[in-house]
Amino acid sequence: MKVDIDMGSQPGGKAATLDLEELLATRLLVQGNSGSGKSHLLRRLLEQSAPWVQQCVIDPEGDFVTLADKYGHVVVDAERSEAELTRIAGRIRQHRVSVVLNLEGLDVEQQMRCAAAFLGGLFDADRDHWYPVLVVVDEAQLFAPAVAGEVSDEARKLSLGAMTNLMCRGRKRGLAGVIATQRLAKLAKNVAAEASNFLMGRTFLDIDMARAADLLGMDRRQSEMFRDLARGHFVALGPAMSRRPLPVTIGPVETSARSTSPKLTPLPDAPAPEDARDLIFTPSPEEARPMAVRRPPPPPPVSTADILTQLANARPKAEEPAEPMLPIIAEAEHAAMIDEVLREILADPDAAFRTVAVLYQDFLVRCRIRRVPGEPLTLADFRRRFAVARAGVDMSREGEEGWSQAVTLSAGLPDDLQGVFLVIARAALSGAPCPSDATIARVYGSHSPSRARRLLAYFEERGLFVTRTDFRGRRVVAAPDLNCETAPGDPAGPADLSQDMPSAAE
């Protein structure tokens, strides 16, 4: 049966009609800033379609409860348990009663939970009760937010899941979603994308105008028109209204919301300044009356016999501390075993060319093979210990003069550069020849000498090293923060692989 709903007028005075049967199959999205006339549009749609189809309105502000007086909607106050709302929704589908779920007075999280329970009851109704229902959700961005807000993740997931079921899977169950939102950017995309009909009202933000124009298939330059739309004027598109963007002016309604837009009213005659101060700072008789505070009744007194009995009872035995899951081991012994595993990894000639993630997995496997007790190193601790090991300095020597400062300076560098910095810093602190390009590239995990030169240039840009060349073409690297420098070294020399990690006993 084809039913055309009169939504108002279009240019030229022709009536703007909406095919109700097509709407039930393709759903509707209404968008417009506050004051653009979204609630007026929804009220017009509900009033015109009330004789033809069952309606369920999710009303967060209590604006649509006035439909009960003229059109017989039953107002369901949401101050109930979630299980009760679910059962009520099932009976609503069974008896085909139009209702308004009034969420007024609840905070946002409670509104989301109540709406999720109610929509879940509509969705899970028995197959025999899958009659057509127009489900109108005002302020849909509250129930299907695009991003997490101040509400709990559980409430957000429940509400978003219920809205997704309504828009994505509700058609086969007879549920036709009509959702209205102030901003498309605040509405979850998987919910908005399921609507095939659109009524776009006034909006000002560029991102919302661009998205509205994109949904309507309009040019981005045409999106400026959404700023100029008057209250109650919308642009319609969809199989239920028009195959091309069509300006529509929403017609009048027969009922009104309990809350209206603020209107300017004349101020009362201003009292004298002294009288105004008295009106503000003098409490009224009702305020001056002390409020009676109900205190809970005192607990009944405990008899002396009961107190003596409690004192005579033996104290319960303290619970024995649970045995640790991992055996206890001295810190020095544990560090020595970790150092031994690191030396094994460094002894592998291919270790320099593996990523830290691969080396860390190898480290964990070797620790299990050697049955190293205690908690294993985290990836961050392993990266730091391995960088120090590559530099050939024992962890127990970090307290030596100059070396602790070098480790501190390396902490501000990227992970893959810390080992290179410490190798050069070690040579400077000990007065050893400057490492060659091949040695630096090897520590970095590369075969390219030019990469080593770029690394030195990077350190110079950061002000960590200063590089110079003597008369024989040998390189000297000075560390200003450490107040030391390396001995001259041949940059083109072979890779020096003698920087093994010393034993823990050294």
Layout of strands and helices, then pairs:
Layout: E1 4-9, E2 15-19, H1 20-26, E3 28-31, H2 38-49, E4 54-59, H3 67-71, E5 74-77, H4 82-95, E6 99-102, H5 108-123, E7 133-137, H6 153-169, E8 175-181, H7 189-192, E9 197-200, H8 206-215, E10 233-238, E11 242-250, H9 273-281, H10 285-288, H11 304-312, H12 331-347, H13 356-369, H14 379-390, H15 403-410, H16 415-430, H17 437-444, H18 449-461, E12 466-469, E13 475-479, E14 484-485
Parallel strand pairs: 3-8, 3-9, 4-6, 4-7, 5-6, 7-8
Antiparallel strand pairs: 1-2, 1-11, 9-10, 10-11, 12-13, 13-14
Helix pairs in contact: 4-5, 5-6, 12-13, 14-16, 15-16, 16-17, 17-18
Organism: Phreatobacter oligotrophus
Domain Helicase HerA central: 16-109
InterPro entries: ATPase_Atu1862_pred, HerA-like, HerA_central, P-loop_NTPase
